[in-house]
Amino acid sequence: MVLTLDYTCFVRGGPQGEVGVDPEHLEQAADQHAEKLSSLKGKRDSGQLGFFDLPDDRSTMAACLEYAESVSGRFENIVVMGIGGSALGTQALHAALSRPLHDSRLPNDRPRLFVVDNVDPSLVGGVLRVANPETTLFNVISKSGSTAETMSQFLLFLEALKAAVGDSWRDHIVVTTDAQQGFLRPFADVHALKSFVVPDNVGGRFSVLSPVGLLPGALMGWNLPQLLEGAAHGRNRSLSGDFAQNPAAVWAACHHLLDTRCGVHSQVLFPYSHRLRLMVDWNVQLVAESLGKVDAQGRRIGPFPHGAVGATDQHSQVQLFAQGPRDKAFTFLRVLNHKDDLLIPDHPQGLDELAYLSGKTFGQLLDAECRATQLALTDAGCPNALISVPEVDAHSVGEFLMWSMVATAYGGELYGVDAFDQPGVEAGKVATYGLMGRPGFEQERSRVEGRKISDPNYRVI
Amino acid sequence: MVLTLDYTCFVRGGPQGEVGVDPEHLEQAADQHAEKLSSLKGKRDSGQLGFFDLPDDRSTMAACLEYAESVSGRFENIVVMGIGGSALGTQALHAALSRPLHDSRLPNDRPRLFVVDNVDPSLVGGVLRVANPETTLFNVISKSGSTAETMSQFLLFLEALKAAVGDSWRDHIVVTTDAQQGFLRPFADVHALKSFVVPDNVGGRFSVLSPVGLLPGALMGWNLPQLLEGAAHGRNRSLSGDFAQNPAAVWAACHHLLDTRCGVHSQVLFPYSHRLRLMVDWNVQLVAESLGKVDAQGRRIGPFPHGAVGATDQHSQVQLFAQGPRDKAFTFLRVLNHKDDLLIPDHPQGLDELAYLSGKTFGQLLDAECRATQLALTDAGCPNALISVPEVDAHSVGEFLMWSMVATAYGGELYGVDAFDQPGVEAGKVATYGLMGRPGFEQERSRVEGRKISDPNYRVI
Asked: Which residue in A174, A153, A173 sits closest to A162, CA to CA?
């Protein structure tokens, strides 16, 4: 059971009418496929794109599972300190794959997971109050060991941990960081902390299948072999030399053509699934940080990734989608089989108008809404694609993750940008260091302090 | 202590440079202010725009508080069944104003709140397992009583409730619906259920300060008098005839000019606050559903509202914001005072690089990141505004809600569309009825069933 991509309504002249990819342009994209794919494969062969090979690294998976087994039953809480690529994949997979809390039909043998991805004191303090350090495992994730948000949390939780358990604090910490570089590696070594490696050639937003996501997954009981198998399957299809059989290439090429040729600058991922809702945030980072770039000609490029969740957003964003500017491309995620589906019961007397719902299931209703909304947006002339997901399980989720990552890397080839750097975040980082008084950033400090971008005498109400 | 809006960097020639509102256009907007405001006031005077007057309705607030007092201590869980405007405001206020769960410094006298805003069986079934009906109060919210998502949940929870508590099910249900119309009102009357009214002249996305949001708020212990006082204050400022002193009008006019004159079609609300993070989703519905319309000339118009949360999204979207197309307008929400701020502790030996963090607070770090990111986006030429929030409390949240609602209504005047209808969602709704076999929609059913928008022989991988 694998994913399928139906891109009929991405192409001009499909049922959605005239807004869509010109079939001739799509043929040109097919003609360029060999070249683009070979460029990607070349980078992979030269060792740059480690994410391609993560699904095959069964020994890292085994190490995560072995560690999880060794601490099984010991911790009530897992606190992951991470931000961006160190948080979003784990959050998305947690929503999709973790057994729902308090599911009384299953043994309650898994801890609670908190992914602390901000420095707001209300969040950090809240987790500190909820998660008793004595029964908590802390997983700090930072490739460089210098991420200000993650490391400030680490200082706080470390202090609380030492106060609570004394010398045995070392048994409550797992470090996920670079193999050699950065500040966390020597700290882990000195204290003989359990540690895992973020491979050098895997960037944060491509790292969900490394220990960044696998370790929390092992602790939470996700089916990791299935996850990697699905990812491997998705990777293999996404490397097909036959453009028409390569979902990642086709999805990327359509998005690229919609953006650059059709004025469709936004792309909306629209899962009809509560459990897949956080795939949206993971995908937003992946696309935004990879493709939002200045290209070689100095042009600012990149589509604006966005999300919606069905059926909820029918009551929020669909009005705009249906009647607003046709500058958005939609990809529906339709779930074909809802495990643990529920029957909508008989209506009571006096609510006869609801008779049509009784006897159907919630899964049927959700699916009808997905089909209905796709049809309505198609009739409104909005380009859209449909990814059918057999069932929300580790295999299909792994496959989707890999489709998205390969499609994004492929997008880098199409746009002619480096999909793996993020030079645009440096300025803000350096200004933060200046404002926080980090040594070596004194000049930045005076520059920033001296700047009055909010002149109180000017345009303030 | 009130909000301020600094729009210096929305205007061309500000520190952000050339992408921004032309000052002459802003003067024209000021010249048209009297006319736009008078049109809004006229609609209000004719009884159409009930949301303007909700802050003054202290008797409804008192009724909500009185009911909450009468059931105080009786329920462990509140389950709100609602979607769109019946859910988003409550979710946003819950994140902002509810005492964090398990805050051990406060008496644990408040129930848990679940807002069930989707029909995915994994969500509905999860809530059913977590919330024991015997100790749960169910608040069903639907103006018409025909919302398929909400009513199917209602059928399920009603059945579970009757099975659990027999005849006393009536004491576990509160109905929030229209005063006279719809299916829920007679049902509530027949069974003498406790009920509240959604005023006839208040649309879903403008209803957060009606019993839709006030009743859950009363049950959860939000400071409702402060919330309404802040809203009244915001409303009064937003009705100022002096354009330069009217934050809602200026915010709306800048967004309108950025969209229609400067190619800045997206607007990003960017709170630097964990507690304000869900204001984004509430605001997305408000703007998308109100302004995403076909105008009188048949043009598809409307900005694309979007969100980001600081500091988290610095590691996700800021790369695109800084280097991608300059087609996005940002509004930062900066919190000036973080209650319950936390000190970042001393760094341990071996992590000397973190010395600059020690002794600062998490609130200081978050604020430095907000200032740094605003500066970085300004230097990158991106139009942006800054709303300063004295503190995340009921007063400032109420003020912000009212600013946004008035700005959106004002936007309707500027774009020349009806900000209070949603004709674009009908097609999907009708198609759903068809697929679900609702009587009277047989024709739609055969139309929909007959449509093959996803032809399996065409463009499927």
From this structure: A173
Least-confidence region, from B50-54, B404-408, B436-440: B436-440
Residue B81 near residue B116, CB atoms below 8 Å: yes
Which one from B289, B293, B338, B399 is the annotated catalytic residue?
B289
Distance from CA of B236 to the nearest CA of A (A): 14
Count of all residues that appear for chain A in the document: 461
> Quick check: ipTM above 0.90?
yes
Q: Do A121 and B315 touch (CB under 8 A)?
A: no
pLDDT of A132 over the 90 cut: yes
First to last CA, chain B: 58
Same fold: B4-31+227-415 with B50-222: yes
CA distance A219 to chain B (A): 21
What is the amino acid identity at position A4?
A: T
- In chain A, what residues touch B314 (CB-CB under 8 Å)? 84, 425, 428-429
Indicate yes or no: CB of B373 within 8 angstroms of CB of A428: yes
Q: Rounded distance, CA A442 to CA A434, Å?
A: 6
Question: Looking at beta carbons, which pairs linking B452-459 to residues 24 or more positions away fall under 8 Å?
Answer: B453/A8, B453/A9, B453/A15, B453/A374, B453/A375, B453/A378, B454/A6, B454/A8, B454/A374, B454/A386, B455/A8, B458/A8, B459/A6, B459/A7, B459/A8, B459/A10, B459/A11, B459/A14
A191 is catalytic: no
B452 is annotated as an active-site residue: no
pTM of the model: 0.97
Amino acid identity of B166?
Answer: G
A414–chain B nearest CA distance, Å: 16
Banded pLDDT at B447 (limits 50, 70, 90): confident
Residue A193's pLDDT is what? 97
- Residue linked to tokens 């040729």: A261
Give the three-class secondary structure for A291. helix
Which amino acid, residue B40? L
Q: Which amino acid is at B299?
A: R
pLDDT at A102: 46
The CATH T-level fold of domain B50-222 is Rossmann fold (3.40.50)
Q: How many residues does chain B have?
A: 461
Q: Is B191 in the active site?
A: no
Report the candidate in A203, A89, A84 with the shortest Cα–Cα distance to residue A148. Answer: A84
What are the sequence ranges of the domains in chain B?
A: 4-31+227-415, 50-222
Q: Judge whether B74 and B100 are in contact, CB under 8 Å.
A: no
Contact B119 A366 (CB under 8 A): yes
Contact A119 B318 (CB under 8 A): no
Digit-coded pLDDT (tens) for A6-58: 999 999 998 899 999 999 999 999 999 999 999 999 999 999 999 999 999 99
Chain A residues with beta carbon closer than 8 angstroms to that of B309: 118
**CA B461, chain centre distance (Å):** 38
* pLDDT exceeds cutoff 80 at B320: yes
Residues of B in contact with A101 (CB under 8 A): 126, 130
Question: What top-level class would CATH report for the domain B4-31+227-415?
Answer: alpha beta
Residue B50: predicted pLDDT: 97
In our burial notation (b when 16+ CB lie closer than 10 A, e otherwise), range A74-83 reads ebebbbbbbb
**β-strand partners of B361:** B343
Given pLDDT bands bounded at 50, 70 and 90, which one contains residue A109? low
Residue in B124, B272, B304 nearest the CB of A266: B304
pLDDT in tens, B130-166: 899 999 999 999 998 999 999 999 999 999 999 999 9
Residues 22 through 81 of chain A touching chain B, CB cutoff 8 Å: none
Cross-chain Cβ contact A351/B183 below 8 Å: yes
Name the residue in chain B with its Cα closest to that of A102: B130
In this prediction, residue B448 carries a pLDDT of 85
